[in-house]
Amino acid sequence: MSENSVSPLSIPTALAELAATATTLVAPYLRSVARSAPEVGLKQDIHDPVTVHDQRTEAIIRWFLAKFAPGCTVLGEEMGEELDPELVGDISEYVQAPAVALSEQVIDVIAPLRSRVRWIVDPIDGTANFASGLTYFGTSIGVELDGEVVAGAISVPFNYEIFVADDRHFWHEDERDGTRKLLTSRGPTTETEALLATYYPGVHDLNASPDLSLAHEKTLMNAYSTVRRPGAGAVDLAMVAAGWIGVSMATALKPWDVAAGIHMVRVAGGSVLNLPMGTDLPDGLRPGVVASGSTLQATTAERVLRELDAEADASLAEAGNPLED
Question: What is the mean pLDDT of residues 178-182?
Fold first, then answer.
């Protein structure tokens, strides 16, 4: 594979191409409505915002997938799992990208797959950033084939860039001119040199286990050169895959936050520890994540995550694990 061409002949590559095109399709819309002071709603609490643009962006993506991948299913953050064009209505006025150009080979490869394919969609990864006028947000689409993630794409609209992976290669694409560059997950070689992007401990951790959370925070801050909360977990994982963020850690992500990003890190040669944190989700979709580049073993973050996973198991056992009913 050359840096400027990707074979559309394999199924994972065709799925990666379609996912990348879908993220590119919504990027102009997101740029046009960002910093528009959208009305913000809440899901679970004040720390889990949603805007009409999250819902509209997912609707655009679903419309696009229904057109080019008929019969597939979607697991989206904002809507149900069934891919039904009638559900999303007419969103043509919001599609601001130019006409989509997909090769006939890509279309021919994907069309027969139908229900073998599931798209895992986060329309706006980093909604709180987006709603506040910050530009660190993106759109993430992971792609399952027969229940296994084989491709993904994550766009960062204000950077005009898309990160894409099939089952063998990870590449960066410039939205403006379509140029592509293969990337590998290289970066710092020691924890003390690495930036840690993390969302632990969060407010729920501090309320539930303040002493443990503060002890873990002290451990992490002493182990890594810098600790940041960028605000978009999927984008963080893409940056780890590219070798630009040393380590990403989270304890409560959703499948749409991690499906594409975990796959990218692994394809790029990086390491991912993905723990269930009391859920029954499969590897690659679980809420507990420590991801690092190929040149770094994130020993401290992994130790903290394993401790938290063990604590989640103990809490389930004490309460009576509903997964065993």
Answer: 95
